[in-house]
Structure formats: structure tokens, C-alpha cells
Amino acid sequence: MRHNHGLIFFLALVLLWLSFAAADDEPDEKPWIFTIKHEHRKHKDLPAMHKAFEKVDAKPPYNWVFESGDETFGVYFMTVNCTEKQKTQLEKDYDHLISQAGEYKPYREALYTAFESSDYVIDQNMNQRHERLMMAQEPGEQVPTKYFYHKSQGEGITVYFIDTGINRQHPEFAEADREGRIEVLFADPFPPDPNDPGKLKLDVDSSLRFSHGSSVAGVVIGKITGLAPKAKAVMIAALDRDALSSEPLYLNALLKLHRHIKKNNSDKRVVVNISMNAGYFQEAEDPNALINDIRRGLEDVFDELAKMKNVVIVSASGVSEWSQTDVAWSWPNMRADKRDTAPNLVVVGGVDKEGKGIFQRPKAEYQQVYAPAYAVKIASNIGYQLTTGTSFSSAYAAGVLANYMSKDKQLTAEGAKDLLIKNSYPRFKDSSGEGPNVIWTGNKLKDAGWTYKEMEDAAFCKRDDKDSCKPNSSKSGGKTNSQPNSPLKTSVSSPQRDEDDDDDDDYEDDDDEDDDDEDDGDVNYISTSTVIKEVKYNVYVTVGPNGPSPTNADDEYIDPLADPKDRGSRQVKARAVAIPTQTRIPASPDTGNLAVLKTSTATDQPSPGS
User: Fold this and answer.
1) 502 a catalytic residue
2) Which stretches in the chain have pLDDT values below 50?
3) Which residues pair with 351 in a beta bridge?
4) Which fold has domain 28-106?
5) Which of 317, 376, 415 is nearest to 134 (CA)?
6) Which residues pair with 270 in a beta bridge?
7) Buried b / exposed e along 102-126 (16+ C-beta atoms within 10 A)
């Protein structure tokens, strides 16, 4: 028996040694990226190279084999998940095609900043907010008391975005999604699985984490926050399955944008909004040859977009201090001063509530305008809030362009771009008589047949026969204001209210029902009284094992868009610490990457009892 025990002990040691040896010999598989030489992007050996990648790729749980390119541009890069030994062999076998090779992981970036918001109450008429009134102010006239707009609201115009995705389930997008006016594409490599039944959930989760794409798109096509809510949106999400981004991923997003325009809108006027630029993680020519290959690819695609007569591009200037005159080292802004290669590009800077420039001083060579960028109202991952940045300035310009073109069916994309620049004028002038040229909606009160006195009285609309819309006598007495009814719906469905009014969003619209009376005729201009009421929201965005998640003070996961009664039903998987982000002020705006969403907790009104 003693010998048996010794034998068992010996065998156990052998097995332990074998397990360690196996661990040492275990393949070190990781994702690699290979850029293709410029002159060989359409080489006949590329299909064979792709097959070789397929052969060595460690498929489970995901397939990393991918090649970024198309018939127009050829192949820019390929990716594969394999050992370093296999990677070296691939380099030898296809040395005549490969420009650079390296591990892909260092190029993937997380694009979020966690934040904590305090309790606050906002009860603000959306169409009386400073950012809208500034854009509606006519040259030489007083600031209107209400925002007003043309009925077309971007209808028939497609606005493209490269950003972090879009939360289709946010009330801002419910109607557009239901009408099929939102399309979401995912960039490669390593995208969400298109056959995954949970794709919609992933789409929503990513937007809740990062919010930036939803916030930017909401400024254009949002039901309440959008300037052009009837436009169509095509969002190319530059996030992979792990919700990380990279410049190669951005290149593929740009390729998909170019391909989509050629296939679906080659004969239609479109707007491209670039609030999330490529190259923000570097400020000069990168010594990394692989990344420079990717940037040359970006240059190729932007060159082709610049040739498209039906396309106008607006790009956020960056969030550098007002003393900064050069736009950030990013695409497409780095060529903003070259009109011959960027004829359809407009760079958009930012101003505060008074029209004072806070981001990016203008430069003579740029086609540059300005738009509100401080404490603007956006749709976010906690419902609605205020934030700051030129991401939203650019989106405002995109919305105004969409409205120009939907209002005037004969206006070309180039004509709309020229009109945007021509219509922009200073709202504030310094001691030298100069000031940033802020965009204008182009709508005049006299065209609508209104006076400033009429605008002060109530929400209203005007028919094309110059008669005012009749009040809807059938309206219930539940609303505090009795106002004329607009036949244009501007509301969103309200979530169920919690009895204690806690952690809930109210969406109210004084003009949210159709007029069934005998009022006939077309409405050309509308001014509404859309009210957003936010009551006692206390949300912590915490960084956990799966990225940031909205939680309450007890670290319980909540869904800000769900029924309030269900918000405490799920828990985050791991304890995490909330990271507060400082409120922005015009005198000292944040600097850094536009791609990183840094959220302001500024509010219009203090918390009750504060």
C-alpha cells in the first residue's frame, strides 16, 4: 500500500509538470493588423493572403479575419487572431504585399469618461433655450422670444454620422426609428455580430455607456432636441464588439460611409457630420509607420468625398482654447485650409450663450462658422442634460444645412454650404468690432407673417393663407396653458409617472394633438411650446467590468429609459467607483479629445433645497 501511495504521488508530480509545460507551450494568440502597400491594394495575390489568414485564425469565440477596402480603393489592411510565430510566417509569405504589421491591441481606445450628476430640476421650454434663439435671431433684429422653424424640418435629406452609435430606444428617436429613418452600420474589424439576436440590445447598451453618438444625432433628428427631426440619419458606429475604437476602425467607418452614399444617395443631397474626428489621439505626424498608412487611407477617402457635388461636410473644430488658431491634428480638419482638396468642408467652432468664441479662433484660410457650444440641451444616457463642446456645434450646423435643403428643393449641396457661410454673422463683437460668425436658420418673421408681439403671446402657427391656426376647443383642461394647436406633432410618448415623481422624465407638449376642427391649409412656419421637465435625477455612471453603467447611489444598475418602478431590478456585476467630471465654464473650457465624451453637470436651476 505504501508503494501505491508513492506511485500516486509520483504520477501527480508528473501531471503537474506536464500542465506547466503545456501552459508554457500554449499558443500566444492575439489580434494582429497588417497594412497593404499603396501600389498593391488591388493585387491579384490578396485573395490568397486572405485565405492564409483564415487558415491560421483562432476562430473561437470570434472570427478576427477581416480586410478593409472595396472596389474603389482596394484593400487597406487585414486583421487576424494568431500566434506571433504565425504572424511572422505570414509576413514572410506575403512580404511583397505587406507594408507594416503589428499587434492591434495598442491602437484600440476606450472613448468614455465616467461622471456623477447631482440632483437637479429643469423645467425649460425647449424652444426658448438660448442656443435655439441665438440661431433663430435675424441679422439686425432682436432675439426672438421663441424659436420658430419651417415645416419641412429636413424632410428628404439624409445626414450621415461617424460616431459611437445611437440609442434607438431613447424617446428622441422612437418616431424616426418607427418610420425607418434611422440606419445603423457597424465599422470593422471585430464588429458586433450582425446575426446576433441581441444586436439591438448591444446597440442600446453601447449608446447608454457612451451617449456621444446619441447626443449628436439628437441635435439633428431628435424629436425634441433636433433641428431637423424629419431628416433621415445614417449612423456608422466606430466602435467594435468591446465598445472600443481605433483609427483603423475609423478608416473602415469612412469607407462604409462613402460606399453607402455612392450606392444609396449618389443623386441626392446629403450632409456628413463629423463630430468625432479621426486622429485625435495624436497631435503631430505619428512616427508609427502603420498608423501613417491608415492616415493615408483616410486621406484617400476624404479626397473622394471632396469630389462629390451632392455632399457637404461639417466638422467640429476641436475643443482647444480660444487662443488656438489651428484646428486639431485630425481628419478632415488638417486639410481645412486647402480649398482645392476640401471644397465642401466647413469647420464649426463654438460660442457661449452670448456669442463669444470659446473654442478655436478663426483662421482666414478656413471655411469656418460658429454655433452654440456651451450648456446646450442634449439627449443623453440619463434622459436629457446640459453639456458643452463643438461636437454639438457641428451637429447644429448639420441640422441647419438639412433644413436649408428641405425648404428649397432646388438648392444644391454646394449652394447650401455657401448659404450657411453667407448667413452666419456675429452675435457679439469685441473692442475691434469683430466676432465669431454664428450660424442662422435663415427664417424671417416677415416670411412667416408674424410680429414679435404675436410671438410673445403664445405658441402659434401660420397657414400659407396668412391666417392663424385656430385653437383646439376640444383640448382637455389638464394643461395649464390654453394655446393654439399646431397640426405638426412635436411630442414624444411619455413614460409612466412614478407616484412620488422621483427619477422620472416628463415630456410635455402644448401642441401635441391633431386639429380636427375646420382649419384647412398648409402650415409653413411653426413655433411650439415643447417643455421638458426633469425631476430629481441622481445618477452615477460607474466603470465596471463591462464599461460604464448607470447606477444609483447603492450601486444598483438602473435603466434611465425604463419604467421607474423597474429601475432597481438589476444589479451591476462588480462594485465600482464613480468619477466626477468638473462642470465646464467658458473661461476655462475643457481641452482634449472630441471623441471622449466629457459630460457637464451644469443646470438651469438649482436643486430643491440647495
Assistant:
1) no
2) 23-26, 112-124, 281, 283, 462-466, 470-521, 529-553, 555, 557-610
3) 357, 372
4) Alpha-Beta Plaits (3.30.70)
5) 376
6) 158, 311
7) bebeebbebbbbbbbbeebbbebbb
Q: What is the pTM of this model?
A: 0.74
Look up the CATH number of domain 152-444. 3.40.50.200
- Per residue in 239-263, pLDDT tens? 887 777 888 999 999 999 999 999 9
Catalytic residue chosen out of the listed positions 163, 203, 503, 519: 163
Q: Do domains 28-106 and 152-444 have the same CATH topology?
A: no
Tens-place pLDDT, residues 112-152: 443 334 333 343 466 778 899 999 999 999 888 888 888 89
Helix (H) or strand (E) holding 263: helix 247-264
What does the block give as the cell for 545?
467590468
323 labelled catalytic: no
Conformational region of residue 91, where left means phi above 0, alpha means psi within -120 to 50, and beta covers everything else: alpha
DSSP code at position 468? B
Cell numbers at 278, concatenated: 479621426
Rounded CA-CA distance 30/45 in Å is 24
43: Cβ contacts below 8 Å, ≥ 6 apart: 36, 97
CA distance 345 to 421: 11
Euclidean distance between CA atoms 470 and 462, whole angstroms: 10
- Angle between the 84-93 and 46-56 helix axes, to the nearest 10 degrees? 160
**b/e per residue 537-572 (b: at least 16 CB within 10 A):** bebbbbbbeebbbbbeeebebbbbbeebeebeeeeb
Cα-based distances in Å from 172 to 4, 187, 359, 380, 490: 74, 24, 28, 10, 11
Cell numbers describing residue 51: 485565405
Q: Is 340 left (phi over 0), alpha (psi -120 to 50) or beta?
A: alpha
pLDDT of residue 228: 96
Burial of residue 156 (number of CB atoms within 10 Å: 0-12, 13-18, 19+): middle
Residue 8: in which H helix or E strand, if any?
helix 2-25
Q: Where are the domains of the chain?
A: 28-106, 152-444
Helices assigned H by DSSP within 94-237: 130-136, 174-178, 199-210, 212-221
Report the distance separating Cα 460 and Cα 34, nearest Å.
Answer: 60
What Rg value do the Cα atoms of the chain yield, rounded? 27
Of 130, 150, 170, 212, which one is the catalytic site residue? 212
In contact, 497 and 504? CB cutoff 8 Å: yes
Q: Is 457 known to be catalytic?
A: no
Please pick, among 380, 391, 424, 491, the residue that the annotation labels catalytic.
Answer: 391
Q: Which residues pair with 508 in a beta bridge?
A: 531
